[in-house]
What we know:
Layout: E1 86-88, E2 91-96, E3 110-113, E4 122-129, E5 139-150, E6 155-162, E7 185-191, E8 195-200, H1 202-209, E9 214-220, E10 228-232, E11 241-245, H2 277-287, E12 292-293, H3 294-304, H4 312-324, E13 328-335, E14 341-347, H5 349-366
Antiparallel strand pairs: 1-11, 2-4, 3-10, 4-9, 5-8, 5-10, 5-11, 6-7, 6-9, 12-14, 13-14
Helix pairs in contact: 2-3, 2-5
Amino acid sequence: MLPTSTFTPTPVPTDTPVPTDTPVPTDTPVPTDTPVPTDTPVPTDTPVPTDTPVPTDTPVPTDTPEPTDIPEPTDIPEPTPILPDSLIAVADTYVRGGRYSNDNYGSDPVLKVKDGSDKFDRNTYIKFDLSNINGKLAYVGLRVVVQKVTNGVPAPLFVFGLEDDAWDETTMTWNNRPPVDSQKLLTQVQVSQTGMIEFDVTDYINAQLAGDKIASIVLSDETTARRIVELSSREGSTPPQLVFMPTQTQVSHMSIAPLPQEGETMAQNHKPKPMNTVWFSILDILNDSEALSGTDLLAKLNNSMDARRVRTFTFYRALQALQTQQWVYESGDRLLSDGQHRRHYYLSLEGREALANDRIVRDQLDR
């Protein structure tokens, strides 16, 4: 027997590992300088906290206005006058001619006006103290109260300004009176009934305010009509006075429309009506004449009335009404060729305006 052999495998050789790169050593860091220690700061005081302000609203920006032109300076307005309700006369009296020319009537309760001649004339003097009034006035009225009219109506009454204020109501007489200056005529009326009369004396009073602040006024009759007007004095029941108003409204007689009667509407009453036929005829006649006596005027009136005869009473009533309206004035007695004195009548500016307005009304009604 053969000997058996034992098989021993030969080990396969393993791969020899490839050697890796040896790492390059890094640089050793250079040591830095050690910092020098600084001083320790001294502690400061801790501030006290303040109140926190409340925030405000931010204003909305507005547009910047464009510059405007500088206005030119205006005139300084006159001061507003300081006015009482009215001023009572501080003095009043009347003087009388003829055998009464040395008599004084300063304490009488009445004032009188008449013109017949120097022997029968009576003029009234009134004085006002304006020292408590300042500034220019818009309107001043002289008010007097007529108590009686004798020797017929209407009675002419003229109002004059008087610059001489030295007269005294207790001593003035006809012989020492300040004379009336015809250039100082302020206004005039025809007095036909008793009651209050108011005269516009605005310009004259304003002139006196710019001067000595004393205003004297004379009432007289310059027509020799021989009528007597009696007024209340300051010793009487209703003294003369000045009244003040901010404005004055003057209304023409022809512009005043009649009020509607009971049961009538304004629409039914809007049409203007012509004046009385006799009135119209008198104005129309005087419009063509300078002045006529009552006799001549009545004769012309009857000739124009188409066979309608106007009675004397009716004529003089109409003439009196026209004088009350101040459409007809009386010029006083005139000496006629027959040696008699008669009053004459003439048309005023207001009368001419009234006549013209009435003609327009008549023309409109005829259409």
